[in-house]
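Researcher: Please translate sequence to structure tokens.
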Amino acid sequence: PRRVVAVFQPHRYSRTKAFAAGFAEAFARVDGLVLAPVYSASEPLVPGGRSEDVFPLFARRLGDRVQLADSLEDAWRRWRALARQAARVRRCATRSRRAMRRGWPLRRTM
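Model: Translation complete:
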């Protein structure tokens, strides 16, 4: 099975506040999530609607699999790091399976 890593940028403060628990539940099965700052779409700030405000709900549901980004650029940087990590794990697992089929001892292939 492939790992799923995602970036989520909520849209509008009011919607983020209203659906925070549902958003956290929707991402509960991902292997890694980067929560980006809310895209306000010209909406004024709503107390409790920032990404920082809803992050604890995501953290409760996902634990250490969720990260809070400072900006959209930071979110994509963090996503790339998670994706590279997932690719390394997948390559290592593939090499280990191949080595096991050939028989032990497992040779270092990395």
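Researcher: Any highlights?
Model: The chain has a mean pLDDT of 85.
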